[in-house]
Design brief:
4 strands, two-stranded antiparallel sheet, about 160 residues, alpha+beta
Length: about 160
């Protein structure tokens, strides 16, 4: 379904996707394949005051490894078409090579690929709080790559420590 929206300054455009409420305002946007990863970072940044980009880079590899088998063709395309992976291997090997290539890219631009590299060391209790807040902010069982719940968020945060 497409709807016309008015942007700041009076310009208009057509948009589709899900309806979201932020601070009482309604926004329409296309589904974001990284929306859950983004929400995981929001809770991380809120608790530890890290920059959004660095937090995303630190959580993304853990999230990607947690969800890639649920949408393997998407990660294979990403590996080949975005990261330039030419490996002749199984789809899982190609997807993993794409994730590793992204980590290499993050390192080349000086970004962390886990929470330790980010310089934060959340406790299990802090991880539970972030996971709970993440689910409260965006709902249980949401995500485009894989539907994630609170237990999944806990696993992703814990896996991102290393």
């Amino acid at each position: 379904k497409t709807q016309k929206i008015t942007l700041r300054g009076g310009s208009q455009r057509r948009t589709g996707g899900s309806l979201r409420k932020i601070s009482g305002a309604e926004l329409r946007s296309a589904p974001d394949p990284l929306a859950r990863n983004n929400q995981l970072e929001h809770e991380l940044g809120g608790m530890f005051d890290v920059t959004h980009g660095a937090g995303l880079a630190a959580v993304w590899p853990s999230w990607a490894r947690y969800v890639y088998k649920e949408c393997l063709p998407r990660f294979v395309r990403y590996a080949r078409n975005v990261m330039g992976v030419t490996l002749d291997g199984s789809e899982e090997e190609v997807a993993e090579a794409g994730i590793c290539a992204m980590e290499d890219f993050y390192h080349r631009i000086g970004m962390p690929v886990n929470l330790n590299e980010l310089g934060i060391y959340p406790t299990d209790d802090q991880i539970e709080i972030m996971a709970k807040q993440c689910m409260a902010a965006s709902g249980e069982d949401t995500g485009s790559a894989k539907k994630l719940n609170g237990e999944d968020a806990v696993c992703i945060y814990k896996n991102a420590r290393v």
